[in-house]
Task: inverse folding
């Protein structure tokens, strides 16, 4: 994330200037995005007028293009890099990774979450407290169908707002990690930040 001397929203060396203000005045922005470095790898954060709409793990050479294409197809083709508009999410994520934030307060735009059971699963997941884990079966039960724990897993796998909607806090009943969109190494890292698992040792799986 940003270094302590970096002005909030300022472009990094070699990045184009932030033209957020001009574009917002012109009404040309529907989706703003920024790419951030973090302890769990590069993230693409995207927001609309309603709130944060996407947190995307950038894995692979074409990950940025795929993420932007997905936003253009599912939200709006007017997708613009605008770091200043993402200042709130950037700051809260930075505080979370530094161990200074236990709850996110930023507004969320849930339009990429499928309605019905998926939405109920993610609403319940959003309520899991920092440093706490629950099972897939528990989340399914809270969402209205205890037997649908496999469907709950699929719902969590489609979460467009990982970290902020903390699907990393959902584990198998026996304590196994289960799955995770960004990969199990990232899930372990997030759980370690919250004190659920020991901090991983570099070079040791």
Result:
């Amino acid at each position: 994330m940003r270094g302590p001397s970096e002005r909030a929203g300022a472009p990094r060396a070699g990045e184009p200037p932030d033209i957020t203000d001009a574009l917002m005045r012109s009404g040309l922005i529907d989706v703003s995005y920024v790419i951030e470095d973090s302890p769990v790898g590069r993230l693409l954060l995207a927001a609309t007028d309603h709130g944060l709409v996407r947190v995307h793990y950038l894995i692979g050479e074409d990950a940025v293009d795929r993420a932007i294409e997905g936003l253009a197809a599912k939200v709006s083709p007017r997708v613009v890099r605008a770091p200043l508009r993402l200042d709130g999410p950037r700051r809260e994520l930075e505080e979370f990774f530094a161990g200074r934030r236990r709850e996110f307060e930023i507004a969320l735009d849930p339009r990429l979450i499928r309605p019905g059971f998926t939405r109920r699963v993610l609403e319940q997941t959003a309520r899991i407290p920092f440093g706490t884990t629950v099972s897939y079966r528990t989340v399914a039960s809270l969402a209205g169908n205890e037997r649908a724990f496999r469907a709950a897993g699929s719902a969590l796998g489609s979460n467009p707002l990982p970290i902020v909607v903390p699907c990393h806090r959902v584990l198998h009943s026996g304590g196994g990690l289960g799955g995770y969109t960004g990969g199990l190494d990232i899930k372990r890292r997030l759980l370690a930040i919250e004190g659920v698992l020991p901090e991983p040792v570099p070079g040791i799986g």
Summary: The chain has two domains: 1-112, 117-193. The first helix runs from residue 20 to 26. The domain at 117-193 is CATH 1.10.10.10 (Arc Repressor Mutant, subunit A).
